[in-house]
Design brief:
363 residues; mainly beta; Methylamine Dehydrogenase, Chain H; four-stranded antiparallel beta sheet; 1 helix; globular
Length: 363
């Protein structure tokens, strides 16, 4: 081998190594990578994940139960049972109470955070509650719904379980919400692509802001320090919105099928979980309040559309399963609705034993 040939081969090997390193970095944005999967019991579907960071518990909504997983060991610690179509959980650590939104029961289930036992079932004045959050400023639970007659939301006292107010929303399809810690709740309207600001004390709408170019807003989270909302949009965008003015400050491209966003104040990273295709979590860094930079996309799995972030360890969690086609419905049966909580006969059936948690640590 000549010296020139050896040099060329060496440079070629360095180039290949560099390409491999770049590819590895592209698959591990900000150091995130899929490290573990954990099998969970589930015979139907699922919806939002929630986390009780001080108690180190992750909640996974699976229709009839909230599966409770240790956020450090990933072992199942118990379940909140007897639920009717639960969509999510909200936690009030100061009261020792958790709440589930039961779309099939038109209710909240209030449970003890230590024992996971039901304290009371709370009938709601709105049907089919969906996304649910806790507002620390008023110590109230907020949930909204999809309603063909017009979406609605409800507030419930986290200490007593008493209904404190309801509000009519400007559209038919309300999606996720977030609280700013100052007594304001922000709520995505999926059908009208509007952001709604609500006074959590009076249950009155303060502002309605168009989110263009965002269409079909779904997931929602917030940097409460810079007061920037992180909106996951179904036209493959993450929109960064000023919570005081409603202005869309910037957008980031994301994958399809988003149903959740999260923000980690410790790393200044925003995330969107995208269940379409092979599945990804898009990662963006907040450089300044109005400047977010795309870091990359973490490969996950098809259907992994909801997620949670542990702001103590910076670990991400998402869930998914495998499905098989459902048998054809009888003549005259109602058509299947949306995959998440749709009415009528399902288009797919979850394969038993395939539901699992994906653990995605940083570093």
């Amino acid at each position: 081998m000549t010296k020139k040939a050896g040099l060329g081969l060496g440079l070629g090997l360095l180039a290949v190594a560099g390409l491999a390193g770049a590819q590895a970095g592209a698959d591990r944005p900000a150091g995130y990578h899929l490290a573990k999967t954990v099998a969970l019991e589930n015979s139907g579907g699922w919806d939002y994940l929630g986390i009780d960071t001080p108690a180190r518990r992750l909640y996974v909504s699976t229709g009839a139960t909230e599966v409770v997983v240790n956020a450090d060991t990933y072992a199942v610690e118990g379940e909140v049972t007897g639920l009717k179509g639960t969509h999510g959980v909200a936690i009030s650590d100061q009261d020792g109470h958790g709440f589930t939104s039961n779309g099939g029961g038109n209710s909240f289930t209030m449970f003890d955070l230590k024992t996971l036992k039901t304290i009371q079932e709370i009938p709601l004045p709105i049907p089919r509650p969906d996304g649910i959050i806790y507002d620390p400023a008023t110590d109230r639970i907020f949930a909204s719904n999809h309603n063909g007659q017009g979406a609605e939301a409800v507030f419930v006292d986290a200490k007593t379980g008493a209904v404190t107010g309801t509000v009519k929303l400007p559209g038919k399809a309300s999606e996720y919400a977030v609280a700013d810690g100052r007594g304001h709740v922000y709520n995505n309207m999926e059908d009208t692509s509007i952001e709604v600001e609500i006074d959590a004390k009076t249950a009155k709408i303060l502002h309605q802001w168009p989110l263009a170019p965002c269409k079909g807003p779904s997931g929602l989270s917030m940097d409460t320090q810079t007061r920037r909302l992180v909106v996951g949009c179904h036209n493959n965008l993450m929109a960064i919105v000023n919570a005081d003015t409603g202005k869309v400050e910037t957008t980031i491209p994301i994958g399809g099928g988003v149903d959740a966003t999260r923000f980690d104040p410790g790393t200044k990273l925003a995330f969107s979980s995208n269940g379409a295709g092979t599945g990804t979590i898009t990662v963006a860094h907040e450089d300044s309040p109005n400047q977010f930079t795309l870091v990359g996309n973490i490969p996950t799995e098809a259907g992994a559309r909801t997620m949670e972030v542990d702001t103590q360890t910076h670990t991400l969690f998402t869930v998914t399963a495998k499905f098989k086609p459902a048998p054809p419905p009888p003549a005259g049966a109602p058509a299947a609705g949306r995959g998440r909580g749709g009415r009528g006969f399902m288009r797919r059936i979850l394969i038993p034993g395939s539901f699992h948690l994906l653990v995605i640590p940083k570093g």
